[in-house]
Design a protein that fits this description.
Blueprint lengths: L1 H23 L2 H25 L9 H17 L4 H23 L4 H21 L9 E2 L6 H23 L2 H11 L1 H6 L4 H27 L1 E2 L1 H4 L2 H14 L5 H20 L4 H15 L3 H8 L13 H8 L19 E12 L2 E12 L3 E5 L6 H8 L7 E6 L2 E2 L5 H6 L2 E3 L12 H12 L3 H14 L15 H13 L5 E5 L7 H16 L3 E5 L3 H4 L5 E6 L2 E6 L1 H4 L3 H7 L3 H9 L1
Parallel strand pairs: 5-10, 5-11, 8-9, 9-10
Antiparallel strand pairs: 1-2, 3-4, 3-6, 6-7, 11-12
The chain binds adenosine-5'-diphosphate and magnesium ion.
């Protein structure tokens, strides 16, 4: 709390001083301030797409240039006042980003980066060749009456955008953005539509860039293609975010101010060398301080990001308390489908010449646990990918909750209660234990109060509440797996797919998981569990299905299947016989 007051006190003071200088300072000071505030704005905009979602762009200047041209044309041809022109420019930026993002954000990171670079060049060529934009010579527009007024407004706009970005990082959308950046597949499994989340971030980022362009043209009163789509602006913006700290709110502010002061000073004294110094600085920062100034400050314990909606987590958990399966809310049994919760028929998946899954059928009923076992490479994980929408079957169909689901996206299925874990834990490196579970519960519940209550209840249920503010890599492996299971439970699953979830867990942790699974089953959740730790799963499994070379070689009650000579031969394990003894 006190830290927050300090943080915002310092920011408020900075903004107040800047506003004062902008209003009353000399023209030179005001202009310097305008440039610094403009760069803080541009850096903050770039950070939204490249820092928060991890999609690095080399063409953010496209939106700056577009905003500048649209604002200029609006002032020239529509007689719009500067603020009207700025609003139109911002909308134009968003309007271009929306369709573009919908296409480009399906690409992988590097192709997106290059695509954006191409966009800036294309827009520059268009601006040079049109008559209405004044062609290569550019165009003049009415500029601000005074540089002081212009700087004052620029500082106010930049400060507002910084505050709005902060609010974004404290919101559901912010949580999703960071989850997508950390691991978009895991985010999908937690019910997040990764693609639309990225598109929204891209639109916000583009809108901010375009606003910057509009204020720029109002400040200089002149625009040509070279200055609107200037690669140096792009480079400086990126440098500022890297220097300050990518992915944080304050990074672009700190970097924007420092680098713009530095580059103004360089320009005044060594205009020839300015570019060289900035370029060298970029390389130096990438090598020496990859996390930027902010990460150094964070290491001292300052300006750390606080867990989203994390106030009073312990109290919530205590109030919700884990009172056993009967008290746990869940869908009433009446809405659960009668019979199979999840089933598939003749499911096959080929990778080139390899039939990873070859005509597998399975059924799991509401409230029962089906164990899947089989040697490595038997196709178990691939089967899970087919069932949960992460891969498309070559043949066959999957039915969930009474309907055919092939072709539905993983996040849609997750929201409908088909939840899964991954064989290799997929957690979010920068999200706390609390946020990891909250992400899933908030993709299900529109109400913040319900989402936080659910997340707290589940953390209490799996005994992770004491670690609520920790990052996953500080947890021992067994607890990491427990956290992944907690994330699935937050989706109120109707069917749970667990891929070797209990590997690496202590006996106590296994007991915790077994209890949580029994509670879920009591609520009517069907579970399919791939497991190598057979003693952990056999006692609570209704049936076992054995895969080998992509096909089912045996199925039935654990006691029978685990003694089947065919199974023992395929498995060549001793453990399997021990498990058979356990359930006998
Ligand atoms: P299991 O989980 O039972 O150990 P997997 O489902 O991971 O088995 O793998 C089954 C087979 O499919 C293996 O031979 C594996 O090499 C192959 N396989 C799995 N995923 C892919 C992929 N994306 N591309 C090509 N081959 C794959
Ligand atoms: Mg596997």
């Amino acid at each position: 709390m006190r830290e927050g007051i300090l943080e915002w006190g310092a920011f408020g003071l900075l903004v107040a001083v800047c506003l004062g200088v902008a209003a009353a300072g000399s023209g030179y000071l005001a202009q310097t301030l305008f440039t610094a505030a403009l760069f803080v704005l541009l850096a903050t905009g770039w950070n939204v797409i490249s820092g928060f979602t991890g999609y690095v762009s080399f063409g953010q200047v496209s939106f700056f240039g577009l905003g500048a041209y649209v604002a200029a044309l609006a002032m020239l041809h529509l007689d719009a006042p500067w603020y009207g022109a700025a609003v139109i420019a911002t909308l134009a930026g968003i309007g271009l980003a929306l369709p573009l993002g919908m296409i480009m954000l399906r690409l992988q990171g590097i192709f997106f980066a290059l695509g954006m670079f191409g966009l800036a060049r294309i827009l520059q060529i268009i601006a040079s060749s049109l008559e209405i934009t004044g062609g290569p010579m550019g165009t003049t527009v009415a500029m601000a009456a005074s540089v002081n007024r212009c700087a004052f407004i620029m500082v106010a706009v930049a400060a507002t955008v910084v505050v709005a970005t902060y609010a974004l990082t404290r919101s559901r959308l912010g949580l999703r953005l960071m989850a997508v950046r950390d691991d978009s597949i895991a985010a999908e499994a937690a019910g997040v539509n990764a693609w639309s989340t990225k598109v929204i971030a891209f639109c916000i980022s583009a809108g901010i860039g375009a606003t910057g362009g509009a204020l720029y043209v109002w400040n200089v009163g002149y625009l040509d293609p070279g200055s609107a789509f200037n690669g140096t602006i792009e480079l400086q913006t990126i440098l500022m975010v890297l220097a300050g700290g990518i992915g944080s709110v304050w990074g672009p502010v700190v970097g924007g101010i420092l680098i713009s002061i530095l580059s103004t000073a360089l320009w005044a004294h060594f205009p020839m060398e300015q570019q060289i110094v900035l370029g060298a600085l970029t390389m130096l920062i990438a090598i020496v301080m990859p996390g930027g100034i902010l990460s150094a400050v964070n290491r001292l314990g300052w300006l750390r990001r606080k867990p989203i909606w994390g106030a009073g987590v312990r109290a919530l958990a205590a109030a919700e308390g884990y009172a056993g399966p009967a008290a746990s809310p869940g869908p009433p049994p009446s809405i659960l489908p009668v019979g199979a919760a999840l089933s598939c028929r003749s499911l096959s998946k080929r990778f080139g010449g390899v039939a990873a899954v070859n005509g597998v059928s399975l059924t799991v009923k509401a409230g029962e646990l089906l164990a899947i076992i089989g040697p490595n490479g038997a196709g178990k994980s691939t089967l899970f990918n087919l069932l949960s929408g992460f891969a498309r079957p070559s043949l066959g169909e999957v039915h969930f909750a009474g309907r055919e689901i092939s072709g539905l996206a993983p996040h849609v299925l997750a929201r409908q209660g088909l939840a899964r874990t991954f064989q290799t834990s997929r957690l979010f490196p920068t999200l706390t234990v609390w946020e990891t579970v909250l992400l899933a519960s908030s993709s299900l519940h529109g109400s913040r109060a319900v989402a936080t209550r659910e997340a707290a209840r589940i953390l209490a249920e799996v005994d992770l509440i004491d670690q609520w503010a920790d990052l996953p890599d500080t947890l021992p492996p067994g607890r990491q797996r427990l956290l992944e299971i907690a994330r699935t439970l937050a989706l109120r699953p109707r069917v749970l797919l667990l891929d070797e979830s209990m590997a690496g867990m202590s006996a106590k942790e296994i007991e915790r998981v077994q209890n949580a699974l029994k509670a879920a089953m009591a609520r009517g959740c069907g579970i399919v569990a791939i497991e190598h730790v057979l003693p952990a799963i056999a006692p609570i499994a209704a049936r076992v299905q054995v895969l080998d070379f992509g096909a089912t070689i045996a199925e039935g009650p654990p006691a029978l299947v685990l003694r089947d000579p065919v199974v023992i031969e395929a498995y060549m394990g001793v453990e399997i016989e021990e498990a058979a003894d356990d359930v006998a």
